[in-house]
Design goal:
hydrolase activity; about 400 residues; Amidohydro-rel; Amidohydrolase-related domain-containing protein; TIM Barrel; about 50% helix; eight-stranded parallel β-sheet; Metal_Hydrolase; single chain; alpha/beta
Amino acid sequence: MAAPDKSPKYLALYETVFSQPAIDNHAHPLLREDTRFSIPFEGLISEAEGAALTEDAVHTAACYRATKQLAHLFGLDEDASWEDIKKHRDSMSYADLCNLCFKDTGIRCILIDDGLGGVAEKAEGYKWHDQFTPAPTRRIVRVEIEAEGILKNIAASSSDVEANRDLFVTTLTESLTNSALDKDVVGFKSIVCYRTGMNVSVSGNKEEEQAALQEVLATYQAQGKLRLQHKALNDLVVRIALDVAGKYKKPVQFHTGLGDSDITLTLASPAHLQPIIRTYPETTFVLLHSSYPYTREAGYLTAVYRNVYLDFGEVFPFVSGEGQRSIIRQILELSPTNKIMWSSDGHWWPESFYLGILQARQALYEVLEDMVSRREVSEKEAIRIVEMSLFLNASKLYGL
């Protein structure tokens, strides 16, 4: 993609960073054209909600930077405001906007988690995104959403407590097995971080699981709403997913760290996963979103466990430029560079993919340039880090 610096210190490294094809190892679908204005655009630069999103997020360093970069993309004056950006994008045809944001980004393939809330009502299907990349889009199955669908079906059948629990285990195992055998599915994802926290139990208590199941079903029958947020049951879902994933060699992505106010931040550190990582050595864990602000904990886990990988995504563009460079440096403190992978965490708006790859390339170059200058790595080694983290590691891990 277009590189901002015309006179880089290390030309070969610079050219590699800004031309290396990239695999986006974690993203979500774009909004449909008819729903493109249904969600506040400020969600592009923040996970906040309400006034914290629409009134506060626009005053962050991350937003100021994104505004300048989008102004450049849209051909606006460099002093264009956030409101100017919104007005310009809103005036464009949706097809033109999407094509502009993906043009020359170098994103070769997108792995899409289509279980995000609101996708069914507002977003395009994962295959629709094939038009923007040379290689076909692949799917990541969100296990909690699969489990909730099964629970809704169970609610309409047997009332036997023990039978319901056993039926749930059997049906979820079969469902995830079928997904693992689907050629379009390259992995699973868990959002247990959002629901009950990362401290997943390595074993379960059947009576607690039955009680949690009955509570979920009773709520659904009484209110027509079902949300899986009972620790015994959530932990059971994760263990089932890890079993299936290990058997069929599918990585399991875990939301860690950075998220919205629904997360209990103290339970969002991947360090809580250490017991379950040890218990499932044949299953690959992918820690998403740089685990920010717990990046060092995530790096530690990749260094000491062969089955742990680290995704550096979502922090582009949610975190300031200096913060992004700090995150990359923290990752490189311990993480083996054959176990780190980029993602955009792109969602809803095509600009999220554009900013996700542009800012990642910039941060990678700036950090690696400094390391080469300090003679901590050679330029050749730095180039290899770029190739692995943007493409080769994900290609190998997901069997692409």
